[in-house]
Hints:
four-stranded mixed β-sheet; elongated
Amino acid sequence: MEGGQRLRGEVRISGAKNAALPILCSSILTAGECTFHNVPVLNDIRTMGKLLAQLGCTVEGERTVKISAAKLTSLEAPYEMVKTMRASVLVLGPLVARHGKARVSLPGGCAIGARPIDQHLKGLEAMGAKIALNHGYVEAKAKRLTGARIVCDIPTVTGTENLMMAAALARGRSVIENAAREPEVEELARVLNKMGAKIHGAGTPVIDVDGVDELHAIEHAIIPDRIEAGTFMVAAAITRGDVLVRDCLPEHLDAVIAKLRAAGAEVTAEKGGLRVRAKGDLTAVDITTQPYPGFPTDMQAQFMVLAAVAAGQSVITETIFENRYMHVQELARMGAEIHVDGRTSIIRGKAKLSGTTVMATDLRASASLVLAGLVATGKTEVLRVYHLDRGYEKIEKKLRPLGANIKRVRVKGREQ
Ligand code: EPU
């Protein structure tokens, strides 16, 4: 990339990765064939498709995906799958609920933190599943799950989703307290209710699920990705651009919009999306990541770039994952002044970023490096862009029409 261009124009946001992943898994709960539209075309979605196919589902299509779990041939999510994508653990709840059994590899640590799944397991156990940990795998068994009151120690997104899917086919009523409130949880509940589930309260900290005997096939279009939208909004702001972010849902972006406005960007709701404009210098903003509706951890790395170029000193505190500052060292190599102390980082603004070769380490870290490249002087090369492709649909093809000077290249003998 060659930085320095002001981004102008319109960009269309794809379907939400973190809604699509549990929704694809929800098809295990029914023998009917489900059709999902607006599925983002991403590596993580392909990995989930492979996992479902390995279980015996028929999976067809990309943007529109048809899945049938009429006849499963395996109830196991192997280590090779789970280690490449932790969201594979989302098959656990549905498999136990409809087939009485599941064997899922324990995910282990990952680049951004330890990320245990104890809350998923505690909830399933409360519903009567027998859980055993053997040879690095979770083995869960239950003739039929029974409804239970589950109080989560912390709000967990995929944990809440796993438990909601399990409770949908359990006998009797379940209550999930301290549930995650993310829009993706609400979207999954919408899908399950369309299938015939009886779920109330998704999007609030208390979710009631009245179990039913059977769920049926549905057709559904997935909500837009609020993190992809937020990433383009930051891109518009830091380049002092003027971009209409199309097809996003502004109500899912309140915390992000508030911080962009606090930094001096103009954000207006327009027909078809959100318009982000910035003229003069941006100013420092303090951010603390929180479960929804607080500021999303998935936008922390991108805002760090904004903080690096804004006037003044910003403080960013990451409270969700203990190791989500892998982008800091790479941003520092581009000239950002960031001091990290535990979960807090202090960013001295007005850095003159200069392009160099940097290495992506995880999905959102890689997005931050692309953003930094947009405002850096000279050439920036981001390596290991496969991290980016897990969660952004061809980001370079969306940035180029906005005026960014960016391309994907294969360099022989170099790490991509
Ligand atoms: N946690 C536990 N025990 C559990 C579950 C979670 O201690 O049983 C902890 C985690 O270690 C973390 C916190 O609870 O400290 C919250 O984690 P959560 O379970 O909510 O995260 P997740 O469900 O594994 C989803 C997204 C992430 C996003 C987080 C937080 C999906 C597929 N993934 O992960 O997305 O960062 O919620 O919002 O929905 C991304 O898209 O880049 C990404 C990492």
